[in-house]
Every structure is written in structure tokens, then in C-alpha cells.
Amino acid sequence: EPEVTQTPSHQVTQMGQEVILRCVPISNHLYFYWYRQILGQKVEFLVSFYNNEISEKSEIFDDQFSVERPDGSNFTLKIRSTKLEDSAMYFCASRRRYLAGYTDTQYFGPGTRLTVL
Amino acid sequence: GQQVMQIPQYQHVQEGEDFTTYCNSSTTLSNIQWYKQRPGGHPVFLIQLVKSGEVKKQKRLTFQFGEAKKNSSLHITATQTTDVGTYFCAAVIQGAQKLVFGQGTRLTINP
Predict the structure, then answer these.
(1) CA nearest B32 in A: which residue?
(2) Inter-chain CB proximity B101 and A95 less than 8 Å
(3) Do A110 and B44 touch (CB under 8 A)?
(4) pLDDT tens, residue by residue, A45-92
């Protein structure tokens, strides 16, 4: 069964450093998402991406964050200058398509645990 | 923004007992999804409810969507140790189709 993959599984970085989290969505999916989950808390929406542009972003997704789909397969989340509070599990998700009145399942990747020291 | 409240935060049961988690929203939801997250794992889709009053079953799991489409519940009959994990409801927001998650209910089971 196709699945979303993410690399690395764990990233440790120093405060102020840039990190890039990578995701490979399921190949025929068109909608891509990043969510984050601080340890022990709920999953929070960061950003959605469709047709090579951001379709929606949350308050968390400030100027320090950016997303890119540099080629036909990868979907990346960049944090320019990491802060201690960015430490969390970051999940990528993808969805096939949207049909009026119907919502496709979002498939989540295994996550990247980001630790900012 | 859209808020989804989920209770209880924690539930500890004896194996074989039933378990229920509830989600509530102050606004009408177009649909709601349920996810299970095992410790150290990622959210795994369980089911989606769309229609008012809808009830769906998956073996020992029963999912309900309220008549007013503002609340939902997940009920597990006769829990097993494999049911351990955190159960999240997630409201689907139209447009970008982002998911707004509830706080989750962490289920632990005494064998």
C-alpha cells in the first residue's frame, strides 16, 4: 500500500539554525499538508499546499516557515531560524483530490521529531 | 477559529470494559474524522462521518455523528490491549480541507 514517507526521522539542531524537513507524498495525491504535534498535545495544522502554492496557513506558520515542492515528488518544510518552541513532531500528510461534498482521507507520514537545543 | 473540544483527556479501563470519547463543536461541522495514534506513532485514519445522525461501525468500534452535526462520539466495546493509544477527532474545514484536531483522548488498558 502506498504511504507518505518523511526524512529524517529525528533532527537535532541548535537554536537559530535552519532546518529542512522532507516528505514524499503518495504519488497520485494533489494536496499536501504539514502539521505539528508538541509532545503530549494535539495535532495542529500548519499549512496546506495545492497546485504549487500555499492554499491556507495557520497563525503558527509565520515568516520563519516556508514550504516548497522542488520537484515532482518531494514536499519540504523549512524553518529558517529555529526556536526552542519549534521542538515538536512534524507530520506531513497528503490527500488525493477534492470532490464537491466529499472529503478524501488524509494520509499521514511517520513524522520527523525536531529537537531544538 | 474553529475549535473542537474532546473529552475525556485520559481514560484508563480494565481490559474488557467499554470506552467512549466525545467531541463537541460550537459550530456545525460539514464532516468529522476520527484518527488513532499509537504511542510514538502517527495519526492513522479510522473513519469519516458526513451525514446528520450517521452511525458507522468497525468491528468493536461505533462512531456517531450528532443530529445537529456539532458533536460526535467513538465507542469501543470490550476493549483489548491493542486498543491502547490516543483517539483524536478532527473537523474538516472546507476550502483547503485542513483538519482541526481535538485534544485527543488517551486510552490506557489494564490487562
Answers:
(1) A103
(2) no
(3) no
(4) 999 998 899 988 999 999 999 999 988 789 999 999 999 999 999 999
